[in-house]
Design goal:
The protein folds into two domains: 72 residues, Potassium Channel Kv1.1, Chain A, CATH 3.30.710.10; 99 residues, no CATH class. 59% of the residues lie in helices and 7% in strands. It contains 13 helices and three strands, in the order H-E-E-H-H-E-H-H-H-H-H-H-H-H-H-H. The longest helix is centred in the first third of the chain and has 20 residues. The chain is elongated and about 65 Å long. It holds the Pfam family BACK.
């Protein structure tokens, strides 16, 4: 790409950043938590498959469309809406948790290319943090089929360090499909007594009325555990 082309793209991106900031002639209000964002239909429609679907069926009131987003923080949406407008994102300097927490809302908004970029950035630059938060990362990777790169990363880590997930305090909060994937693994180093103790703890978290003492479990309790997973 020539320097002239690069300068033109930078100018183009900056112009849309100014449009986002100025809110000029906005016709969409997106509510996230207690904050409202004044945005532009054409930009949202073209850049996000989620917004494209929402805008197609939305009803205008006084020539304004209102959309309420749940399961996304204001902080994350600020980053993502800037990306939607400008096509740029700067992850350097952001906390690892902030970057990681962009994945799920990026998927919700249909930003496939950004999901790939964030996964690559985390794997290439923040691998130590991913290992530190392994149970959370592993669970999230199976939450969405778009997170294949993280799934592969986690699978490779488990092959080399099978007990890494057992050392995590977040084991009991992992997604059911992530646990099922663990159970399907042909890994005898992983499936030791500690592993099965963790699985039982996980099931207790899902069913708080289960007796804490395993000696009080009935045969049905154990069968339910087997069938649930």
């Amino acid at each position: 790409m020539s320097q002239i082309t690069t300068k033109l793209l930078v100018r183009f991106s900056n112009d849309f950043a100014q449009l986002l900031e100025s809110k000029y002639d906005y016709n969409v209000i997106v509510k996230v938590g207690q904050k409202s964002f004044k945005l532009h239909l054409l930009v949202l429609y073209q850049r996000s498959s989620f917004f494209r679907q929402e805008l197609t069926t939305a009803t205008k009131k006084n020539n304004i469309i209102e959309i309420t987003l749940t399961d996304i923080t204001v902080e994350a949406f600020k980053i993502l809406i800037k990306y939607i407008y400008t096509g740029t994102i700067l992850l350097e300097g952001d906390k690892e948790s902030t970057i990681f927490d962009l994945l799920v809302p990026s998927s919700k908004l249909g930003l496939a290319e950004l999901i790939e970029y964030i996964q690559s950035y985390l794997i290439d630059n923040k691998a130590s943090w991913l290992k530190l938060k392994f149970a959370k990362v592993y669970s999230t990777s199976f939450q969405d089929n778009n997170f294949k790169a993280l799934q592969i990363f986690c699978t490779d880590i488990l092959a080399k360090h099978p007990n890494i997930i057992l050392a995590s305090d977040e084991f009991t909060s992992i997604q059911k499909n992530a646990l099922i994937n663990l159970l399907k693994r042909d890994d005898y180093k992983l499936k030791n007594q500690k592993f099965w103790d963790k699985v039982i703890q996980w099931r207790k978290e899902q069913t708080p009325d289960l007796p804490y003492d395993l000696k009080q479990w009935t045969e049905k309790n154990f069968l339910d555990l087997k069938n649930y997973t």
